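Hi there, hope your week has been kind to you so far. Do you reckon you could talk me through the fold, stretch by stretch? I've dropped the whole record in just underneath, so have a look:
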Amino acid sequence: MKKLSFVLALVAFAAFSFTNPVAEVKTYSVDASNSTVKWVAKKVTGQHDGIVTMKEGSLEYTDGMLSGGSFVVDMTSITVKDLKGNMAGKLEGHLKSADFFNIEEYPTATFNITKVVPRGVKGEYKVEGDLTVKGITETIKVPVIKMNEGEDGISTSESITLVLDRTDFDVRYGSGTFFGNLGDKTIFDDFELTIDVSAK
């Protein structure tokens, strides 16, 4: 009787293993030198643009599909590209100050993927995650991410574009939403990020 029970247990385990195969999980490390984050901020009288460096990160694939990931951005690396010399340095210093991103207290920003939904096309996903800037976390939805997976790793096949409200992260300097009579000194709340990711 004991022998029969043991055999039945083996058969049940084998059946369970066959119907519930172990998922194949692969983790890729972000190649910061080949990943870019470009920003554009607009004001009444024009706009400025620049870059910020991705410090580190990872992307997780389960059974060949994106399933998670996280990123760390080096806020101390904020660079202005549309200005030169002292003008660029002055704006960079202001963006790093407590008026804007306060890099001394908050040297990094993070994004952690919390949900991935395939869009029905290979390599395309909808993603939801937690973005933390200046210690404030907001849920961000990315409607389309297009990824290529190859022998050398993975990368975005098209740039990811996000439009964020800086005041959600207590960056209020020059905001017409919080300060009146700014006139042509008003800086718009929305800013745009264009992101390209490469990972190995």
User: Anything to note?
Assistant: The first strand starts at residue 25 and ends at 29. The mean pLDDT is 92.
